[in-house]
Design brief:
single chain; Aminopeptidase; Aminopeptidase i, Domain 2; 20 strands; Peptidase_M18_dom2; protease; aspartyl aminopeptidase; EC 3.4.11.21
Length: 499
């Protein structure tokens, strides 16, 4: 049987998204194709955002928030939300990455997040990310450009077994996790003309930091500049991430698996964005009194404490602006010719602007969408015996009595109702009492906003490895669940209410 189309679409998405910056760009392309209008936080939305409209915005180029406003929206009404994250454990180039040792060119890297670092050895690596480029001459503007070098240029070789007889392999992250990029002799023979030009152009200017050509290998800078279509002298700075050039693909005897980097958490990023887009088609906005929102944050893997992480003001600020959005004065929108039913008395009674934000939070709900652990057949004893999620068995509801996950019984009832109508199977997961438990953006956003929250995610193996394994059928499961939740939340919200 052929894999779901959504699984193939996900492969395209993750292959195009080696960094959070690329993931946000890929998500924005999906949203643009679906008719979503781009907003800027620095602008007033008063004359732009209207009931019946679809919008998105980005922050730092690495976080994205998209929302569709129901045509029956009134200030203070509920907002159905799905939250995910765009980052994954990785290696990032250090600000001064130029290293040489024993005739090799090496690149200094910094570990990001809790990666399984030994999985990065003997892989065909390259770099991707964003560069800041000076446009024009003199005091020109600085613009961001995305770069992705598609050929392998870096490698972290393992030490031969003849020289390392120990059974364990726990490399030192500072000294033994250094990629090789080439041979020093080739670099010495390379013409240094770009460097001389750079020095000549700026010899009368004060330069606060060392020049890029002193901080990074010129050959690496030349590759990055060529990929961006600029001169090396135009690059002011960059943030580059190492990635495995081996593309994500279907695997297994019947294509039941996805073998890929960054399943955690681009799988949920893709499914939430696709679910929002699909919900607008399957459940039009005409009679919806809610707002449907998806937020995908950067920096979850390192605690979310940044200006564009889930622990920032990004989501609260957007919810505050949306909570006081004026309702529609008409009963229909241009998206449908079907007459709409008249607004209810409750919808007519608008809260004052001073309490609309709090009223919206009290009636809203967040699905914290982050990947879950599938049972590992070789390590089954590591799992609680009655909670062993299976790949392609549907999204996993994650529960923890110590609030590492934010799930509770009313939330389970709500999601179960959504899943029943969407015909999506669900699974349950708790960790063993003698095992530590990871966490997500769910508890922090639930505490920050006071919003009802449930943690959920597709099951996978090899979480935080450079190459992870998921189920091809679970992509479609999650898309349909998020589609059903966002499209039907307004109908279900008042039926499952515990004050």
């Amino acid at each position: 049987m052929a894999p779901p189309t959504s699984a193939l679409e996900f492969l395209d998405f993750v292959n195009a998204s080696p960094t959070p910056y690329h993931a946000v760009s890929s998500a924005a392309s999906l949203l643009e194709d679906a008719g979503f209008t781009k907003l800027k936080e620095r602008d007033s939305w008063a004359s732009i955002v209207k009931p019946g409209g679809k919008y998105y915005l980005t922050r730092n180029g690495s976080s994205v928030v998209a929302f569709a406003v129901g045509a029956r929206w009134k200030p203070g009404n509920p907002i159905g939300m799905v939250g995910a994250h765009t980052d994954s454990p990785c290696l990032r180039l250090k600000p001064v990455s130029k290293r040489t040792a024993n005739g090799y060119l090496q690149v200094g890297v910094e570990t990001y997040g809790g990666g399984i670092w030994h999985s990065w050895f003997d892989r065909d690596l390259s770099v991707a990310g964003r560069i800041l480029v000076r446009e024009g001459q003199g005091e020109g503007n600085f613009v961001q450009k995305l770069v992705k070098i598609d050929k392998p240029i870096l490698r972290i070789p393992t030490l031969a077994i003849h020289l390392h007889r120990q059974s364990n392999f726990d490399p030192n992250k500072e000294d033994e996790l250094l990629p090789i990029a080439g041979l020093a002799e080739a670099e010495l023979n390379k013409a240094a003309e770009p460097e001389r030009e750079s020095e000549a152009e700026g010899e009368s200017d004060f330069v606060p930091l060392k020049a890029l050509l002193e901080r990074h290998h010129p050959a690496l800078l030349s590759l990055v500049a060529a990929q961006a279509g600029v001169d090396v002298s135009q690059i002011v700075d960059f943030e580059l991430i190492l990635y495995d050039t081996h593309k994500a693909c279907l695997g297994g005897l019947n294509d039941e698996f996805i073998f890929s980097a960054r399943l955690d958490n681009l799988n949920m990023t893709f499914c939430s964005i696709r679910g929002l887009i699909s919900s607008v088609s399957s459940a039009p906005l005409d009679n919806d009194p809610t707002i449907r929102l998806v937020a995908c944050f950067d920096h979850e893997e390192i605690g979310s404490l940044s200006a564009h992480g889930a622990d920032s003001n990004l989501l609260p600020a957007i919810l505050r602006r949306l909570s006081v959005l004026p309702g529609s004065t008409t009963t229909t929108t241009t998206t449908s010719t079907t007459p709409s039913s008249p607004p209810t008395k409750q919808q007519e009674e608008n809260p004052s602007a001073s309490t609309a934000f709090e009223q919206t939070l009290a009636t809203s709900f967040l699905l914290s969408a982050d990947m879950a652990h599938a049972v590992h057949p070789n390590y089954a004893a590591k799992y609680e015996r009655n909670h062993t999620p299976a790949m392609n068995g549907g999204p996993v509801v994650k529960i923890n009595a110590n609030q590492r996950y934010a799930t509770n019984a009313p939330g389970i009832v709500l999601v179960q109702e959504v899943a029943r109508r969407a015909r999506v199977p669900l699974q349950l997961f708790v960790v063993k009492n003698d095992s530590p438990c990871g966490s997500t953006i769910g508890p922090m956003l639930s505490a920050k906003l006071g919003v009802r929250t449930l943690d959920i995610g597709n099951p996978q193996l090899g979480m935080h490895s450079i190459r992870e394994t998921g189920g091809s059928g679970d992509v479609e499961h999650a898309v349909r669940l998020f589609e059903g939740f966002l499209g039907r939340f307004g109908e279900l919200e008042g039926r499952i209410l515990v004050d």
